[in-house]
């Protein structure tokens, strides 16, 4: 009890740990011939043996100090002697204190080990006199318990969804009749039937609008093509009424006619040797019918024939959008829906599903991953997914997600936690400070306090 250890402070910064403490000898009364070795050490709770002994401080009485100096000069060493970190001669009755500092690589066991202070006394004849060990800290390295930011998404009052699809049917030239066994139409009918029936037969959905838009390729008369595209779009609508029972009142049909914009995009991405000439015709000739003649004039119609064969057919298509409302789901229902058709869930429903699992489960992270994938630009989805990443130990993945956001307190807080977990204390502190400045005066402030104290 004559030696006091004060101001014990342990700090971890990345891969290293620093121990600082003050050893007060003010009350120590030493016999002149004794030598005292003072050493911090680590041991596991409940164990007797230490797992790591730090360099000791040597304190000797006056006579022993003189003897030790002479022995050192002569190269003589005793069996028990070690190279001390520091050595002192004790002056009984005087105030003496030792500032002890040690930096070491962090090892995982340090988060469980306790810091003890070992005192070993050797007498005048080098006999062992006394050893004592007292616990200073448990655990030696206290891992901060950071608070993550999860955001509860707002409830979506009415869930409205819209799915866009393209149907590319083959028609007899200048005709609008839909013929199932014409060319590859059977496969296209099967694809359309599958898409539409999945919506029509789903009792969780209520169709609000069926939008159909007809497009034609650019060859031929502009007005004739527009009228033909309209007739073909209406033929498709009539098929949906007869085959799937869609109400006529739900249809909105439009004819866009010749799809010059689609052609321009396709040619721009192509390796067509005369690409620049084709694009120049489209850009500088406003009359659609006049463009045909100019395209034919390029290299004696070779380019035009390639356009007819390769680039025009995909432009003859019908695009359709099915808009519908989705009923709300309970958590139990949503847990099943997210496995098969997650787009029917709102962010709020997904959040409640995630929270129904433990944070350690794979389902917990999977749900937030799905939400971020379906809502890639939604800050709430990004922030919640980043928190799940951190819970799962995927710290860099969280940072990568959050880099999309700026001036967001919750994002800064989670990024700070990720950096702290990676051992980058400086960046973590910077992020927590930004989070506090952006308005998070609770979680980020608490996290910051754990790093700067």
Automatic annotation (TrEMBL):
Q: Pfam families from the xrefs?
A: OmpA (PF00691), TPR_1 (PF00515)
Q: Which UniProt keywords apply?
A: TPR repeat
Q: Enumerate the TPR repeat regions by residue range.
A: 409-442
Domain OmpA-like, residue spans: 192-258
Q: Which residues form a coiled coil?
A: none
Please indicate which superkingdom the organism of origin belongs to: Bacteria
| UniProt keyword Flavoprotein present | no
Transmembrane keyword on record = no
Q: What is this protein called?
A: DUF3868 domain-containing protein
